[in-house]
Each structure stands twice: as structure tokens, then as C-alpha cells.
Amino acid sequence: MILAIDPGSAQTALVEWDGAQIIERRILPNLQALELIGATKADAVIVEMVASYGMPVGKEVFETVLWIGRFIERANATGKPVRTVYRKDIKLHLCHSMRAKDGNVRQALIDRLGAPGTKKAQGITYGISKDLWAALAVAVYAHDNPEAGDTRADIHAKGGVGIGSSEGVGMRVAKQAPLLSSHKKNFQHDPPQQTNKI
Questions:
Q1: What are 6-54's pLDDT values in tens digits?
Q2: What b-and-e string marks burial along 117-131, b requiring 16 or more CB atoms within 10 Å of the CB?
Q3: Alpha-carbon gap, residue 189 to 154, rounded angstroms
Q4: Domains in the chain, start-ordered, CATH in brackets?
Q5: Cα separation, 33 vs 27, whole angstroms
Q6: Which of 101, 34, 21, 30 is nearest to 74 (CA)?
Q7: CA distance linking residue 16 with residue 23, whole number of Å
Q8: How many CA atoms lie within 13 A of 161 on its CB side?
Q9: What is the 3-state secondary structure (H, E, C) of the chain?
């Protein structure tokens, strides 16, 4: 089962997909989304990543990128595989065109999975609306392409150094400080050279 995430600057769409059925679907404020990610029973977490196309972007995009990092960090803490995927690849997979719009992606999902239906005759996509369509697209793409995207492994799992750890950036700078001080004693400035004014 996949937990697919369409991140936003303030709220995020999440869909749990097992390849045949939608197990869970929610649009949540980002702090609540963090809690759901930490408690998910999914086998993998897939997050749609922001991509640059050379156009100016505003504060909302940077806020979204910040939250993507927090979502990845929380998912890594669960020990589950985490990957990021890109919208252009999802469009190509579902619509065979990078020019596809959100409406085209929605229609491609309906063509494949069936119409939402009604409360009395619910289809697979019943209850999917707004950003949940984007999250479902992430889920379907990731399920069809289990190796696609970029793996986002926890830096600690590779023996690396995390900023939040006791061996983080601040500690590294502090440990280097005495070394820099010892060199300072032997460092002498060259006397200023005199220049003639014209």
C-alpha cells in the first residue's frame, strides 16, 4: 500500500492506495498531515516534489518546499521507503503529454478507474475532489512505476550527519573553532604598502 502526498503550503492531500482501492483519502492542515504520515500503515510514502521550470515563484512555493522536507523527515522516522516524484512524469504516464492540465489528469484517472458514482452506487474514485485528484495521480503513478522518482533515505541511516543531531552543523563549526584560533596566532598581516599619489 502506498501513501501518496500532494503537498501544499498550508494544507495537504493524502491518499492511501493499494493498487485497486482507495483505503484513505484526506485533505488536512499540514501539522495534521504530519501526524497521519507518522501513523500510516502504508508500505511506502511517495511525495510529489516541486520542480523548477525557469519561471519566478512566490512565497507559497517556498513554503510548500519547506513542508515537503518535513513530510520526508517524518516518513523517514517510520522506517518506510520514501520517494519523491515529479508532476511532469505523472502527466506523461497518465496522459502521454507534459502539456496535460489538471482536468486531463482527472479524466485519465476516471477513464482508468471509473467514475466517482453516487452515494448509493460508489465508484473507486468516489469522494475524490480538488487536490485529492493530484494525490491519487501520484499514487497510481508510483504503483505503476515502483522504481521511479528519487529515493529520500534518512541521512542518519547512511551514517551521515544531521543538522538536528549533536553532531550537526553547529557542533561541527564549534569543533573547528579551536583549530582556526591556533592558526590565528601564527598569522601576520603584511605591512601596508605605500603608494605615491599622482
A1: 999 999 999 999 999 999 999 999 999 999 999 999 999 999 999 877 7
A2: eeeeeeebbbebeeb
A3: 45
A4: 2-153 (3.30.420.10), 154-186 (no CATH)
A5: 8
A6: 34
A7: 5
A8: 9
A9: CEEEEECCCCEEEEEEECCCCEEEEEEEEHHHHHHHHHHCCCCEEEEEECCCCCCCCCHHHHHHHHHHHHHHHHHHHCCCCEEEEEHHHHHHHHHCCCCCCHHHHHHHHHHHHCCCECCCCECCCCCCCCCHHHHHHHHHHHHHCCCCCEECCCHHHHCCCCCCCCCCHHHHHHHHHHHHHHHHHCCCCCCCCCCCCC
* Mean pLDDT along residues 154-162: 44
Task: Find the length of the chain.
Answer: 198
Give dist(CA 69, CA 75) in Å, integer.
10
Judge contact between 139 and 46, C-beta under 8 A.
yes
Instruction: Return the bridge partners of 122, or none.
Output: 117
Listed in sequence order, the residues at least 6 apart from 108 whose beta carbon sits closer than 8 Å to its beta carbon are 94, 95, 100
